Amino acid sequence: MKLKLNVLTIILLPVHLLITIYSALIFIPWCFLTNAKKKNAMAKRIKAKPTSDKPGSPYRSVTHFDSLAVIDIPGADTLDKLFDHAVSKFGKKDSLGTREILSEENEMQPNGKVFKKLILGNYKWMNYLEVNRRVNNFGSGLTALGLKPKNTIAIFCETRAEWMIAAQTCFKYNFPLVTLYATLGKEAVVHGLNESEASYLITSVELLESKLKTALLEISCVKHIIYVDNKTINKAEYPEGFEIHSMQSVEELGSKPEYSSILPSRPTPSDMAIVMYTSGSTGRPKGVMMHHSNLIAGMTGQCERIPALGPKDTYIGYLPLAHVLELTAEISCFTYGCRIGYSSPLTLSDQSSKIKKGSKGDCTVLKPTLMAAVPEIMDRIYKNVMSKVQEMNYIQKTLFKIGYDYKLEQIKKGYDAPLCNLLLFKKVKALLGGNVRMMLSGGAPLSPQTHRFMNVCFCCPIGQGYGLTESCGAGTVTEVTDYTTGRVGAPLICCEIKLKDWQEGGYTVHDKPNPRGEIVIGGQNISMGYFKNEEKTAEDYSVDENGQRWFCTGDIGEFHPDGCLQIIDRKKDLVKLQAGEYVSLGKVEAALKNCPLIDNICAFAKSEIGAV
């Protein structure tokens, strides 16, 4: 065994030496070609600073220090104006794409379970003009059915092109849109629909049959149900009192001359755009009220952190559109002329559970350049790739480790390793299509280990962001030149962030070496409060003497000297045990998720017995 290892060491030594010599040979030209010196300076510069020397003062981005940004495209102060701008500028360019389903097959698993597998074709695209035509027809059709401006309409549907068409219709015709996660249970859906008093509901046949059919008699206000699929359903199976339409039939109704000539009632910046219901992870879902001006400001801040966003980009949409991260990302991409190709977590890659073995997943076909992801998906990718590495022979595994460690050191210095990218990481990068130039992570903390893995193996920066539904998804995003981990970046140009003492948890703005406390976000991107919940609104929101709205997040943060924020705790995440010590359940879960034997985990604590 010792002899074998010595021989392998002799074999691998020239490889290690080759990488070192290569690195020395290309160091000067590579630094010159990639502006590494400039990037390093950008990474190390001050990115945000407090507005005064007083402890607890708000931090603002240094690039927009004197005033907060509220609008990106001049004159486009509502979402419908962003849409019109995009249609007029990009017209016949591809806009929204959906893969054709060629066939479906039932596949028997070794454990006896039957999985449905899909064989998918290429993406079929609608251009901007076609999307605009469908939006106008759908809006006229809803008007013909009796929907009035400022009357709410709900959408309970999976992420797909029809979701975005319906949303753009509502923005243009001033129908406040109520969004509900497709994964919500029956009780949560009934609560959201009844509380919002929506009389129109957009959904899919699958959700209509699996979740809504048995709940319809508990829903008080809905009278019109519109399903987005090109299918027929047996309306006799549903209770009386509901009018059920296909989206296609509503569009056909709206295209008739007597309705298509009716001009939409356009919104103002202070009109309600969305009532977005949360996931309900801490109780009943709460409806967050967002005005057009709130969303416009939030997206202004987000877009500033994505360099060169434009028509050359392709975005893959698969996260829930009922989540503010995905919704604002897609609207921003649409505004800047990016193609949006739709997918799902079950068809994303060649190895996804609904893709038939030997067929291509959505990333392989679409080859996106931009992608949003939540840490859970990145953790899953990390564990899958590393499990494959463990199956390699000794030489392959050692080569991978040498290349990985080498590139990791280069990244920490602000450089790259193109030879490693070409020889070692090309196949890994191909799992997401091979063209991803930037990924945005949000929704939960991303572990430094997974963050570094994505940087190294997928050869792109990870923009880790922090925001909430209540802040329209906007708060902070790391810059592409910032390769540190564990931080979420500096405040966006649309908002300012301050820390508030939390004495019980031991966090104060006077802490050394860095101020710590509860994160409070202020700016025009802060939503208007919780729908029909004035008590909770008064508890979490406030307005200062200048009329600016603030939201108390409940998250604990720490500002670093360069103005970047790190999330270090959450008030609701801390459990006080019998002996008086605090345990952070989020940190326990984050540590255990990296175990290869654990797919998902939920930690809880019982204070009375003092154990987790």
Automatic annotation (TrEMBL):
Q: Which GO terms describe its biological process?
A: long-chain fatty-acyl-CoA metabolic process; neuron differentiation
InterPro entries of this UniProt entry? AMP-binding_CS (IPR020845), AMP-dep_synth/lig_dom (IPR000873), ANL_N_sf (IPR042099)
User: Could you tell me which Pfam families the record lists for this protein?
Assistant: AMP-binding
Can you name a GO cellular component term? lipid droplet
Alphabetically list the UniProt keywords. Answer: Fatty acid metabolism, Ligase, Lipid metabolism, Membrane, Transmembrane, Transmembrane helix
Q: Which residues form the AMP-dependent synthetase/ligase domain?
A: 115-531
Q: Enumerate the GO terms in the molecular function aspect.
A: arachidonate-CoA ligase activity
Look up keyword GTP-binding and say if it applies.
no
Matches recorded under PROSITE patterns: AMP_BINDING
Task: Report the EC number(s), separated by commas if there are several.
Answer: 6.2.1.3
Q: Which domain of life is it from?
A: Eukaryota
Query: What residue ranges are annotated as transmembrane?
Result: 7-30
Name of the protein in its database record: long-chain-fatty-acid--CoA ligase
